[in-house]
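#lab-general

N.A. 3:47 PM
ok so I finally got the sequence cleaned up, no stray characters, all 353 residues accounted for. can someone with queue access submit it? mine expired

B.Y. 3:52 PM
send it over

N.A. 3:53 PM
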Amino acid sequence: MAQSLIRPVIEEIPTTQSVWPAGFERVPDEEWTRQDPDEFGLKYDEVDQHGWYKNLEPTVAQVLTCLDENEILLDYSGGTGILGRRILPRIQHPAGILIADTSPKFLRVAMENFRDDERVAFRLIRWLKDQKRLQSIDEVLDPSLLDRKVDVLTSTNAIHLYYNLEETLQAWHRVLRPGGHVLVSSGNLINPRSRKGEWIIDETVRHINEIAIEVVRQEPAFEQYRAVLDDPTRMDAHRRLREKVFVPVRPLDFYLRSFEETGFTVLDVFEMTIFAGVEEWAQLLRTYHDGALSWVGGSEKVEGQAPSADALRDRLFLIRYALEKLFTGRDEFECCWTYITCQRRGWRQWAGR
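B.Y. 4:20 PM
back already:
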Protein backbone atom coordinates (compact mmCIF):
# COMPACT_ATOMS: atom_id res chain seq x y z
CA MET A 1 0.00 0.00 0.00
CA ALA A 2 0.97 3.65 -0.30
CA GLN A 3 3.25 5.27 2.22
CA SER A 4 1.54 6.45 5.40
CA LEU A 5 0.64 10.15 5.61
CA ILE A 6 2.79 10.94 8.63
CA ARG A 7 5.31 13.71 9.29
CA PRO A 8 6.94 15.04 12.45
CA VAL A 9 4.69 17.30 14.50
CA ILE A 10 5.96 20.88 14.89
CA GLU A 11 4.55 23.55 17.17
CA GLU A 12 3.27 26.43 15.03
CA ILE A 13 1.38 29.68 15.58
CA PRO A 14 -2.39 29.32 14.98
CA THR A 15 -4.45 31.75 12.95
CA THR A 16 -8.07 32.83 13.45
CA GLN A 17 -8.97 33.66 9.83
CA SER A 18 -12.38 32.14 9.07
CA VAL A 19 -12.80 29.43 6.44
CA TRP A 20 -16.51 28.81 6.97
CA PRO A 21 -19.02 29.43 4.13
CA ALA A 22 -21.01 32.67 4.21
CA GLY A 23 -23.86 32.48 6.69
CA PHE A 24 -22.52 29.37 8.42
CA GLU A 25 -23.14 29.35 12.18
CA ARG A 26 -20.32 27.78 14.17
CA VAL A 27 -22.60 27.26 17.18
CA PRO A 28 -26.16 26.35 16.16
CA ASP A 29 -29.07 27.91 18.00
CA GLU A 30 -30.23 24.66 19.63
CA GLU A 31 -31.31 23.67 23.12
CA TRP A 32 -28.15 21.71 23.94
CA THR A 33 -25.96 24.76 23.30
CA ARG A 34 -27.81 26.69 26.03
CA GLN A 35 -27.48 24.06 28.74
CA ASP A 36 -24.75 23.96 31.38
CA PRO A 37 -21.89 21.50 30.84
CA ASP A 38 -22.86 18.06 32.16
CA GLU A 39 -20.84 16.24 34.83
CA PHE A 40 -20.62 13.07 32.72
CA GLY A 41 -19.21 15.01 29.77
CA LEU A 42 -16.73 16.84 31.97
CA LYS A 43 -15.59 13.56 33.53
CA TYR A 44 -15.12 11.95 30.12
CA ASP A 45 -13.06 14.93 28.97
CA GLU A 46 -10.51 14.03 31.64
CA VAL A 47 -9.44 10.93 29.68
CA ASP A 48 -7.49 13.38 27.53
CA GLN A 49 -4.75 13.02 30.12
CA HIS A 50 -4.66 9.23 30.01
CA GLY A 51 -1.51 7.70 28.58
CA TRP A 52 -3.35 5.50 26.10
CA TYR A 53 -4.53 8.64 24.30
CA LYS A 54 -1.11 8.64 22.70
CA ASN A 55 -3.01 6.60 20.11
CA LEU A 56 -4.06 9.98 18.65
CA GLU A 57 -0.53 11.06 17.76
CA PRO A 58 -0.37 9.30 14.35
CA THR A 59 -3.72 10.82 13.35
CA VAL A 60 -2.58 14.28 14.45
CA ALA A 61 0.52 13.91 12.26
CA GLN A 62 -1.62 12.75 9.33
CA VAL A 63 -3.99 15.70 9.68
CA LEU A 64 -1.08 18.13 9.71
CA THR A 65 0.01 16.60 6.41
CA CYS A 66 -3.44 16.43 4.79
CA LEU A 67 -5.18 19.63 5.92
CA ASP A 68 -4.10 22.43 3.61
CA GLU A 69 -4.79 26.16 3.72
CA ASN A 70 -8.49 27.13 3.85
CA GLU A 71 -9.57 23.50 4.23
CA ILE A 72 -12.08 22.00 6.67
CA LEU A 73 -11.71 18.88 8.80
CA LEU A 74 -14.82 16.99 9.88
CA ASP A 75 -14.08 15.28 13.20
CA TYR A 76 -16.80 12.62 13.18
CA SER A 77 -17.62 11.28 16.66
CA GLY A 78 -15.35 14.08 17.88
CA GLY A 79 -16.77 14.02 21.42
CA THR A 80 -15.39 16.73 23.68
CA GLY A 81 -12.79 17.80 21.13
CA ILE A 82 -9.81 15.80 22.40
CA LEU A 83 -8.38 15.42 18.88
CA GLY A 84 -8.96 19.07 17.99
CA ARG A 85 -7.15 20.16 21.14
CA ARG A 86 -4.03 18.41 19.82
CA ILE A 87 -4.32 19.73 16.27
CA LEU A 88 -5.27 23.40 16.52
CA PRO A 89 -2.15 24.74 18.30
CA ARG A 90 0.01 23.23 15.53
CA ILE A 91 -1.70 24.79 12.50
CA GLN A 92 -0.50 28.19 11.33
CA HIS A 93 -2.59 28.48 8.16
CA PRO A 94 -6.37 29.17 7.98
CA ALA A 95 -8.34 25.95 8.55
CA GLY A 96 -11.47 24.77 10.33
CA ILE A 97 -12.56 21.80 12.41
CA LEU A 98 -16.21 20.79 12.63
CA ILE A 99 -16.85 18.47 15.58
CA ALA A 100 -19.90 16.24 15.05
CA ASP A 101 -21.13 13.82 17.70
CA THR A 102 -24.26 12.01 18.86
CA SER A 103 -23.83 13.16 22.48
CA PRO A 104 -25.04 16.66 23.39
CA LYS A 105 -23.24 16.23 26.72
CA PHE A 106 -19.89 15.73 24.97
CA LEU A 107 -20.52 18.49 22.43
CA ARG A 108 -21.46 20.94 25.18
CA VAL A 109 -18.06 20.36 26.78
CA ALA A 110 -16.39 20.75 23.37
CA MET A 111 -18.20 24.06 22.95
CA GLU A 112 -16.91 25.15 26.34
CA ASN A 113 -13.38 24.17 25.35
CA PHE A 114 -13.46 26.05 22.02
CA ARG A 115 -16.12 28.72 22.57
CA ASP A 116 -13.89 31.60 21.47
CA ASP A 117 -12.02 29.79 18.70
CA GLU A 118 -13.48 30.80 15.35
CA ARG A 119 -11.85 27.79 13.71
CA VAL A 120 -14.13 25.30 15.50
CA ALA A 121 -17.79 24.52 14.79
CA PHE A 122 -20.20 22.01 16.33
CA ARG A 123 -23.05 19.85 15.06
CA LEU A 124 -25.22 17.32 16.92
CA ILE A 125 -26.15 14.05 15.21
CA ARG A 126 -29.62 13.26 16.56
CA TRP A 127 -31.39 9.98 17.17
CA LEU A 128 -34.61 9.99 15.10
CA LYS A 129 -36.87 8.12 17.45
CA ASP A 130 -39.77 7.68 15.02
CA GLN A 131 -37.40 6.21 12.39
CA LYS A 132 -35.23 4.33 14.92
CA ARG A 133 -32.00 5.60 13.43
CA LEU A 134 -29.31 8.24 13.76
CA GLN A 135 -29.20 11.13 11.36
CA SER A 136 -26.64 10.75 8.61
CA ILE A 137 -23.96 13.41 8.54
CA ASP A 138 -25.32 14.99 5.35
CA GLU A 139 -28.64 15.50 7.17
CA VAL A 140 -26.77 17.45 9.83
CA LEU A 141 -24.51 19.74 7.81
CA ASP A 142 -25.72 23.07 6.43
CA PRO A 143 -26.51 23.32 2.69
CA SER A 144 -23.64 25.78 2.26
CA LEU A 145 -21.17 23.28 3.67
CA LEU A 146 -22.70 20.40 1.72
CA ASP A 147 -22.14 22.39 -1.48
CA ARG A 148 -18.58 23.18 -0.50
CA LYS A 149 -17.86 19.73 1.04
CA VAL A 150 -15.24 18.95 3.68
CA ASP A 151 -11.63 18.15 2.81
CA VAL A 152 -10.56 15.67 5.50
CA LEU A 153 -12.61 13.41 7.77
CA THR A 154 -11.34 11.79 10.97
CA SER A 155 -12.90 9.11 13.14
CA THR A 156 -10.71 8.20 16.11
CA ASN A 157 -11.58 5.43 18.57
CA ALA A 158 -15.15 5.21 17.31
CA ILE A 159 -15.62 3.31 14.03
CA HIS A 160 -16.08 0.03 15.89
CA LEU A 161 -19.22 1.55 17.45
CA TYR A 162 -21.05 2.08 14.15
CA TYR A 163 -23.71 -0.61 13.74
CA ASN A 164 -24.72 0.44 10.22
CA LEU A 165 -21.20 0.92 8.93
CA GLU A 166 -22.10 0.86 5.23
CA GLU A 167 -24.68 3.63 5.64
CA THR A 168 -22.24 5.69 7.70
CA LEU A 169 -19.51 5.40 5.07
CA GLN A 170 -21.94 6.24 2.26
CA ALA A 171 -22.80 9.46 4.11
CA TRP A 172 -19.10 10.21 4.56
CA HIS A 173 -18.71 9.80 0.81
CA ARG A 174 -21.48 12.33 0.19
CA VAL A 175 -19.93 15.08 2.35
CA LEU A 176 -16.24 14.59 1.48
CA ARG A 177 -14.78 16.14 -1.65
CA PRO A 178 -13.33 13.85 -4.34
CA GLY A 179 -9.74 13.11 -3.38
CA GLY A 180 -10.36 13.99 0.26
CA HIS A 181 -8.86 11.76 2.95
CA VAL A 182 -10.49 9.68 5.67
CA LEU A 183 -8.28 8.95 8.69
CA VAL A 184 -9.58 6.21 10.98
CA SER A 185 -8.11 4.63 14.10
CA SER A 186 -9.40 2.01 16.52
CA GLY A 187 -8.10 -0.23 19.27
CA ASN A 188 -11.17 -2.42 18.96
CA LEU A 189 -10.87 -4.46 15.80
CA ILE A 190 -9.21 -7.77 15.01
CA ASN A 191 -5.93 -7.08 13.25
CA PRO A 192 -4.15 -10.27 12.10
CA ARG A 193 -0.82 -8.43 12.41
CA SER A 194 -1.23 -7.71 16.11
CA ARG A 195 1.66 -8.87 18.26
CA LYS A 196 1.55 -11.63 20.83
CA GLY A 197 0.36 -10.30 24.18
CA GLU A 198 -1.44 -7.27 22.74
CA TRP A 199 -5.03 -6.72 23.79
CA ILE A 200 -8.07 -5.47 21.96
CA ILE A 201 -8.85 -2.88 24.60
CA ASP A 202 -12.62 -3.42 24.98
CA GLU A 203 -12.09 -7.20 25.17
CA THR A 204 -10.93 -6.60 28.74
CA VAL A 205 -14.58 -5.91 29.63
CA ARG A 206 -15.63 -9.46 28.75
CA HIS A 207 -12.89 -10.83 31.01
CA ILE A 208 -13.88 -8.43 33.81
CA ASN A 209 -17.44 -9.72 33.54
CA GLU A 210 -16.29 -13.35 33.76
CA ILE A 211 -14.07 -12.68 36.78
CA ALA A 212 -16.87 -10.76 38.53
CA ILE A 213 -19.28 -13.68 38.00
CA GLU A 214 -16.75 -16.04 39.56
CA VAL A 215 -16.28 -13.76 42.58
CA VAL A 216 -20.03 -13.31 43.12
CA ARG A 217 -20.53 -17.08 42.94
CA GLN A 218 -17.84 -17.75 45.53
CA GLU A 219 -17.86 -14.85 47.99
CA PRO A 220 -20.69 -14.59 50.57
CA ALA A 221 -20.33 -10.78 50.61
CA PHE A 222 -21.88 -10.66 47.13
CA GLU A 223 -24.52 -13.37 47.43
CA GLN A 224 -27.35 -10.84 46.91
CA TYR A 225 -26.34 -10.67 43.22
CA ARG A 226 -26.51 -14.42 42.60
CA ALA A 227 -30.21 -14.43 41.75
CA VAL A 228 -29.66 -12.44 38.57
CA LEU A 229 -26.89 -14.85 37.54
CA ASP A 230 -29.48 -17.64 37.62
CA ASP A 231 -31.95 -15.68 35.48
CA PRO A 232 -30.95 -16.18 31.82
CA THR A 233 -33.46 -13.61 30.54
CA ARG A 234 -32.12 -10.81 32.74
CA MET A 235 -28.50 -11.76 32.12
CA ASP A 236 -29.15 -11.68 28.38
CA ALA A 237 -30.64 -8.21 28.72
CA HIS A 238 -27.55 -7.06 30.61
CA ARG A 239 -25.33 -8.65 27.96
CA ARG A 240 -27.16 -6.66 25.26
CA LEU A 241 -26.65 -3.47 27.26
CA ARG A 242 -22.95 -4.26 27.66
CA GLU A 243 -22.58 -4.87 23.92
CA LYS A 244 -24.18 -1.52 23.12
CA VAL A 245 -21.42 0.22 25.05
CA PHE A 246 -18.58 -2.21 24.36
CA VAL A 247 -19.49 -3.50 20.92
CA PRO A 248 -18.28 -7.01 19.89
CA VAL A 249 -15.17 -6.67 17.75
CA ARG A 250 -15.11 -7.18 13.98
CA PRO A 251 -12.14 -8.10 11.76
CA LEU A 252 -10.00 -5.57 9.93
CA ASP A 253 -11.03 -7.02 6.56
CA PHE A 254 -14.64 -6.11 7.30
CA TYR A 255 -13.69 -2.42 7.51
CA LEU A 256 -11.40 -2.47 4.49
CA ARG A 257 -14.05 -4.16 2.36
CA SER A 258 -16.69 -1.69 3.55
CA PHE A 259 -14.54 1.28 2.55
CA GLU A 260 -13.81 -0.12 -0.90
CA GLU A 261 -17.49 -0.91 -1.50
CA THR A 262 -18.66 2.59 -0.59
CA GLY A 263 -16.44 4.64 -2.88
CA PHE A 264 -13.10 4.88 -1.08
CA THR A 265 -9.63 3.64 -1.94
CA VAL A 266 -7.70 2.22 1.00
CA LEU A 267 -4.26 3.82 0.78
CA ASP A 268 -2.60 2.47 3.88
CA VAL A 269 -3.08 0.33 6.97
CA PHE A 270 -0.64 0.28 9.86
CA GLU A 271 -0.70 -0.61 13.52
CA MET A 272 1.01 0.54 16.71
CA THR A 273 1.45 -0.84 20.20
CA ILE A 274 -0.21 1.50 22.69
CA PHE A 275 0.26 1.09 26.45
CA ALA A 276 -2.88 1.50 28.55
CA GLY A 277 -2.49 2.17 32.26
CA VAL A 278 -4.50 -0.22 34.43
CA GLU A 279 -5.56 2.56 36.79
CA GLU A 280 -6.45 4.90 33.92
CA TRP A 281 -8.53 2.20 32.23
CA ALA A 282 -10.22 1.54 35.58
CA GLN A 283 -11.16 5.23 35.75
CA LEU A 284 -12.79 5.09 32.33
CA LEU A 285 -14.65 1.88 33.19
CA ARG A 286 -15.92 3.55 36.35
CA THR A 287 -17.39 6.26 34.11
CA TYR A 288 -19.06 3.55 31.99
CA HIS A 289 -19.85 1.22 34.89
CA ASP A 290 -23.44 0.71 33.77
CA GLY A 291 -22.20 -0.76 30.51
CA ALA A 292 -19.37 -2.76 32.04
CA LEU A 293 -21.14 -4.55 34.93
CA SER A 294 -24.81 -3.55 34.99
CA TRP A 295 -26.05 -6.86 36.41
CA VAL A 296 -24.43 -6.00 39.75
CA GLY A 297 -27.25 -4.04 41.36
CA GLY A 298 -29.27 -3.66 38.18
CA SER A 299 -29.72 -0.88 35.65
CA GLU A 300 -32.45 1.61 34.87
CA LYS A 301 -32.10 0.55 31.22
CA VAL A 302 -32.86 -3.10 32.07
CA GLU A 303 -34.92 -3.26 35.28
CA GLY A 304 -36.16 0.34 35.19
CA GLN A 305 -34.33 1.19 38.41
CA ALA A 306 -30.83 2.46 39.10
CA PRO A 307 -28.58 0.54 41.53
CA SER A 308 -28.55 1.48 45.19
CA ALA A 309 -25.55 3.29 46.65
CA ASP A 310 -24.34 0.04 48.22
CA ALA A 311 -24.75 -1.90 44.96
CA LEU A 312 -22.91 0.80 43.03
CA ARG A 313 -20.04 0.62 45.51
CA ASP A 314 -19.91 -3.17 45.04
CA ARG A 315 -19.99 -2.78 41.25
CA LEU A 316 -17.08 -0.35 41.22
CA PHE A 317 -15.12 -2.57 43.59
CA LEU A 318 -15.66 -5.62 41.37
CA ILE A 319 -14.53 -3.72 38.26
CA ARG A 320 -11.31 -2.68 40.00
CA TYR A 321 -10.73 -6.10 41.57
CA ALA A 322 -11.27 -7.90 38.25
CA LEU A 323 -8.81 -5.59 36.49
CA GLU A 324 -6.22 -6.23 39.20
CA LYS A 325 -6.71 -9.98 38.83
CA LEU A 326 -6.57 -9.77 35.04
CA PHE A 327 -3.31 -7.78 35.09
CA THR A 328 -1.76 -8.97 38.34
CA GLY A 329 1.33 -6.99 39.27
CA ARG A 330 1.19 -4.81 36.14
CA ASP A 331 0.70 -1.06 35.90
CA GLU A 332 -0.11 -1.16 32.19
CA PHE A 333 -1.01 -3.53 29.38
CA GLU A 334 -0.24 -3.54 25.67
CA CYS A 335 -2.96 -2.86 23.10
CA CYS A 336 -2.94 -3.04 19.31
CA TRP A 337 -4.16 0.15 17.62
CA THR A 338 -4.99 0.03 13.92
CA TYR A 339 -4.90 3.01 11.54
CA ILE A 340 -6.68 3.08 8.17
CA THR A 341 -6.04 5.81 5.59
CA CYS A 342 -8.54 6.13 2.73
CA GLN A 343 -9.19 8.51 -0.14
CA ARG A 344 -12.57 9.30 -1.64
CA ARG A 345 -12.78 8.30 -5.27
CA GLY A 346 -14.16 10.84 -7.76
CA TRP A 347 -17.69 10.45 -9.08
CA ARG A 348 -16.48 9.48 -12.55
CA GLN A 349 -14.09 6.88 -11.21
CA TRP A 350 -16.70 5.60 -8.71
CA ALA A 351 -19.39 5.21 -11.40
CA GLY A 352 -17.08 3.24 -13.66
CA ARG A 353 -15.57 0.85 -11.11
